[in-house]
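Hello,

Our lab assistant flagged a job as stuck in the queue for most of the afternoon. It eventually completed. Since we weren't sure the result was trustworthy after the delay, we are filing this so someone can double-check. Below is the sequence as submitted and the structure that was eventually returned. Let us know if re-running is recommended.
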Amino acid sequence: MAKERILLAYSGGLDTSVIIPWLLENYDCDVIAYCGDVGVGVDEDFLRNKALKLGAEKCYVENITEEFVTEYVYPTLKAQAVYENSYLLGTSIARPLIGKKLVETARKENCTAICHGCTGKGNDQVRFELAIKALAPDLKIIAPWRIWEIKSREQELAYAEARGIPVPVTREDNYSKDQNLWHLSHEGMDLENPANEPNYRRILELMVSPEQAPDEPTYITLEFVQGIPVKVDEVTGDVAMLEYLNKVAGANGVGIEDLVENRLVGMKSRGVYETPGGTVLYKAHRWLEQLCLEKDTMHFKDHVALKFAELVYNGQWFHPLREALSAFVDDTQKTVSGTVRVKLYKGNAMPAGISSPTGLYDEEIASFGEDEVYDQKDSAGFINLFGLPTKVYAAMKQRNNLD
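-- returned structure --
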């Protein structure tokens, strides 16, 4: 019988470094590793050589950052999708893209299974597997954390040490992290107790704490066309703009989120997220929408944003409802074009001026001064009709002596 060919979602971190020898010990197989770089800036030669030394037959390292920004970040930004009012979906939007690339590579290498290093307690196992099921329902999925004897990261470190496997963490610095161009997350260790204040000087990597930010504000200007950023100050290019925003916002302490979230698998988890550039983009885009979107459309879009965020968080990027919601969102963005000036100061991002050729703000109508376009007498009839149900209900209560 021919050996099974297994494609491994590989990052070079603790989990996936251990999984390569584990697969070879427990399956009659060849292992092909795949690493999709979503803006971390990986060392391709290091990752490839490490995977081969651990026993992989091949190792693909592919930079997919541009596709990540344009096809996953931007649709989520345009939707203004935020999970539980806090989480800007940094990990959630990267997983379906990586899942798609895993399927493509598995087909190329004639693999019959895809393996991932997600734990049985996390959301990522769902995100990867739903992507695989949506794009390649025939492929088998292997999830070692659900079947092997290793029960903790400490045991995993011991497994690695016993086999001489180099890993990028120690017992003293064993945070669980996920990073891409959009964000960096931190979980585990002292953060597992929500009563503990995060030691930002120790854990922050993309940014400084607000206390360390400059005492003078920084101003930046963003230009949008149909809901998509096209220029930040003098910087253009999708990846370059986000890199620039990460640097400037990070230097001003903008983009820290410390939250306890409801995981899809049923438990609450605590994490610290760094999303400097993304925080500025979300705020600037929202301010522009406030100027450009008609009231009913904007209010309904807020409902869409909530559902969009849940779908993405739950790993349902390739779900037909997400695709339909994106079609609605895209239609709303036809008039969301303009310029937003943002003031960054010690952890805060504040509007410092918004303009749009398609804006709906009419200074003459909104003015408290004298005007010739708004007849204030019209409001009396409007209020009488709008308040009629309230008046009828109140009269009924009065007639029947109801409190």
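-- support follow-up --
The delay was a queue issue, not a problem with the job. The result is valid. The longest strand covers residues 29-37. The chain has a mean pLDDT of 94.
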